[in-house]
Amino acid sequence: MNDLNLVDYVDITGEFFESVRTIHDNKVVQSPLFNLLEGTRAVEIGNKKLDTGLIPLSEIDYNFDTSCPQDVDKVIGIINGLVRLYTSWLNNSSLPVTVMSCRYVQTLLENYQGSLNDCTFENKRLPKQENYDKNSVEWKLVHKVLNSFILGLVKFVGTSLHIAFNTLYEEEDLTTRNMDLDFLTDIPSEFIVKKINESIHWLNQESGIESQKKEILCEYLELLNRMLDIQLILAIAIPIFENDDKKKIKNEIQFLQLGLKNIESLSKVDFDNFKLPCGSFSKFIQFDSNNRSIPAELYMTTNEECFQNLQMMFKSIYNYVIESNELLNVNHFNQFLKYDISYKINSEYNAISRGLFQLYLIRDDKSILGSRETITSMGMKLMENTSCLQSLIFQPDTWTSIQGTDEYINTTKEDILIKLNQLLSDIETGIYHNLSSVTNNRCRQRQLMSRGIVIWDTLQVSSESLELELWQQYGIGDKIEGPDSARDDPSLPLSSFVYLTKLNVMLEVALSGFETNIYKPFEMSWMYWYISYLTQVIAEFYSNQIESINNLRTYSITTSIPKKIKKLKSGPKKQKLKQQNEIHQKIHLPMLEKISDYNKNYVIESYKGLRMLSDGVRMLFIMLHALEVTSITPSFELTSLEKIYNLQMKPWSSVGVPNLPHYRQYEKSISIDFLKKLSHSQKLEKIKQILETIIDKFNDSKKIYMSIIKIIEDDDGEQFIGNGIIEWYKSLIKTCVMYSLEVNNIIKLIDGGFSKDDYDLEIGEGYHRYFPKIFIKLIKR
After folding, report:
1. Within 13 Å of residue 292, how many CA atoms lie on the same side as its CB?
2. Is 773 exposed, middle or buried (0-12, 13-18, 19+ CB in 10 A)?
3. 78, 113, 199, 669: least surrounded by Cβ within 10 Å?
4. In angstroms, what CA-CA distances link 489 with 171, 477, 611?
5. Which residues is 713 bridged to in the sheet?
């Protein structure tokens, strides 16, 4: 006790023991909701860094009167601060240290009991309430203008929370701690918009406020109206795959353009002269409300960052609504999701516009973009666009190979349809998994795609089993046939689609590891080796299996069915078959030709280019290893390189087909034993020759990508859409050039007398997210 400074403490021992005397039966009365042991576990108590009860607050913080009139400069300062705090919240912060740190927000939310009339700035806990002149401009600025603005902002925070709860990850994308306060959930936006418009009218007609400051307030209020309108895009029905009037959409989202104009105007204002009232923003809510987090400093972005963030939000929403309105076919849909949505998401991408897109893409009724397309119909279109167009497995009327009584045939068909529908339902789940992952942050996308490998591998087993069962037991399905085919094997179109989807997911998981920086340099070597292997498997599958399946359909329409028609005698059966084939020739044959051309000219070539590029990088690592600039076979005391390989390859290890290459196969592929037999000069000469071969690979890859860009640019919008896909291939071309220049540089260094001790390997940022810059750097002595 002698060490304590008793001046800082209040002696309550007398009062305490007096209170104890009133306790009957020596029992402490406690709430059943309260655990006495919580106190013993609460290590934060008394710790200034952890205990919110010890947050230092001034007298102004305690007694801040939110009902007090404020002049126009301070109201502008508060509004500007709130908007900056909203964007701060989106930038990896939390509500208690951003928007909710405003005393006006706290008071309004604490007063709210379900009615808009509750949302006042009257702080009933203050001991004295002064009588203010309610007719003054300053009073109306607070209780009309500021009140309506905060109502709108709080409502938009509530909308943001709704988006976050449905599509984003807690703390990873957005922190949703709200102190158990209701952000006007039950109040329709229309009522709040009405109040905002009333404030705008008052400012313009009756306020008498200086013109420039009035314009700032009106711009902010109008911007808030546009923000509240953002959720309206969820009601827009996009007529995808239809040639409707595409210009209508701009009228429906005009509010986004108006919002961008508001942001542009506000970004030109110098807000430094608009000071905040003392106590209007503080840690009071962390101290006062139901706070389950440790004390934290308030966080407010700069005006420049704030307006950039808002601009990005409005622009990204506007762009994806406009772009989604241009989708005319499945290829457009795939390219849009891949190049214009998924690949564009980075750490700077606005979390709300990203989360909103997921709700915009897949609506509550499971429709795609509010169109007539559903996940079910979209899944069927994706399958048809790959290998299932006019597949007999989807046409029960053609299952004439089932023999027996009518009852047996009908029962068998019903059983088959039950199994088929269950499989299609499972495939639909896999497609939904793919669609719902595109708007996640890139790290989360990779995690979800890793799960997708297991999903699609399981689906492949199921689909293959069913198709083989139907073929072997009932002869149902498509067989490989044609003028050059002597086989009588099932083509397995459904399994082919599933397998191809799985391969692409596997490839994407491997590639995205470079973007997320999870590979060490020696691991990059085997990952590019594995990517080269996967791209070869995919390209060959397209060239062989997919082409055979689609050629089968073409042959059937152009040759097989016409032959059958000729053999049939005149009658209803012949007439019906003739009419059916006319439809096939008019509709399905052009579709098959487009699919075939798209695959040959674009898809297969794209995989070939990727294979050459990744193979070139793989060989570059081997040569750098041979030059002893780096080691792709480092040794470890606690483990082996093979175990690290198996651990890194775990996402693909459960897949049966294609088999994951063993470490021994990789070890064999990087062997440089042939160089060890050579003299030093011969070794360097051989390395130079191999480096020249690597340059050829990069140049060949570049040529492929340049031809792809030409195909895209020459296309009239029938097969390709958007700028994202062109940017993607241009960055790959730059990557090829970058690697070629670096390899040339290494050759020059070898010619100039290369010493391994003078150089070290460096990995830097490249032109493409999947291909970092790899170069050797002179070591500074």
Report:
1. 5
2. middle
3. 113
4. 53, 10, 30
5. none
Highest mean pLDDT among 19-28, 126-135, 187-196, 201-210: 187-196
Residue 97, pLDDT score: 96
Gap between the Cα atoms of 778 and 759, Å rounded: 5
Q: Are residues 145 and 173 in the same domain?
A: yes
Report whether 730 contacts 757 (CB < 8 A): no
In the listed set 640, 660, 676, which residue is the last one of a domain according to the structure?
676
pLDDT in tens, 137-162: 999 999 999 999 999 999 999 999 99
Q: Are residues 385 and 248 part of one domain?
A: no
Structure tokens at 416: 């088959």
pLDDT tens per residue across span 115-132: 999 999 999 888 777 788
Ramachandran angles phi, psi of 759, nearest 5°: -130, 155
Judging by beta carbons within 10 Å of its beta carbon (0-12, 13-18, 19+), is residue 228 exposed, middle or buried?
buried
Range of the domain at 508: 367-676
Give the confidence band of 39 by pLDDT, cuts at 50, 70, 90: low
Q: How many Å apart are CA 239 and CA 328, to the nearest integer?
A: 9
Q: Of 465, 488, 495, which is closest to residue 391 (Cα–Cα)?
A: 495
Number of C-beta neighbours around residue 652 at 10 A: 19
In a domain? residue 694:
no
pLDDT per residue as tens digits for the range 420-473: 999 999 999 999 999 999 999 999 999 999 999 999 999 999 999 999 999 999
Token representation of residue 146: 């500021």
Residues 217 and 94 in one domain: yes
Mean pLDDT of 358-367: 95
The count of other CB atoms within 10 Å of the CB of residue 118 is 13
Least confident of 144-148, 247-251, 390-394, 522-526: 247-251
Residues 392 and 274 reside in one and the same domain = no
- The partner residues of 761 in beta bridges, in order of sequence, read 776
- Report helix, strand or coil for 762: strand
Tokens of 359: 């709700």
Q: Report pTM.
A: 0.90
Please check whether residue 699 lies inside any domain of the structure.
no
Same-domain status, 182 and 227:
yes
- Report the chain's terminal Cα–Cα distance, integer Å: 62
The span from the CA of 616 to the CA of 734, in Å, is 15
Q: Which of 256, 240, 453, 234 is nearest to 355 (CA)?
A: 234
Please enumerate in sequence order all residues whose Cβ is within 8 A of that of 625, keeping only pairs 6 or more positions apart, or say none. 525, 631, 632, 633, 670, 672
- Average of per-residue pLDDT across 596-622: 98
d(CA 610, CA 708): 12
- The Cβ of residue 517 has, within 10 Å, a number of other Cβ atoms equal to 10
Distances (CA, A) of 334 to 186, 210, 378, 518: 38, 53, 11, 27
How far apart, in whole angstroms, are the C-alpha atoms of residue 231 and residue 276? 31
Residues 329 and 376 in one domain: no
pLDDT tens, 697-715?
A: 999 999 999 999 999 999 9
* Displacement of CA 677 from its chain's centroid (Å): 51
Whether residue 211 sits in one domain with residue 65: yes
User: Is 163:353 a contact under the CB 8 Å cutoff?
Assistant: no
Split into its structural domains, the chain has a count of 3
**In angstroms, rounded to a whole number, what is the distance separating the alpha carbons of residues 213 and 270?**
11
- 353 domain-assigned: no
Contact 291, 95 (CB under 8 A): no
The answer to whether residues 281 and 320 belong to one domain is yes
State the alpha helices, DSSP H only, in 475-520. Answer: 493-515
**What is the separation of C-alpha 106 from the centre of its chain, rounded to a whole number of angstroms?**
33
Considering the domain boundaries, does residue 537 fall inside one?
yes
**End position of a domain, from candidates 344, 359, 384:** 344
Tens of pLDDT along 233-244? 999 999 999 887
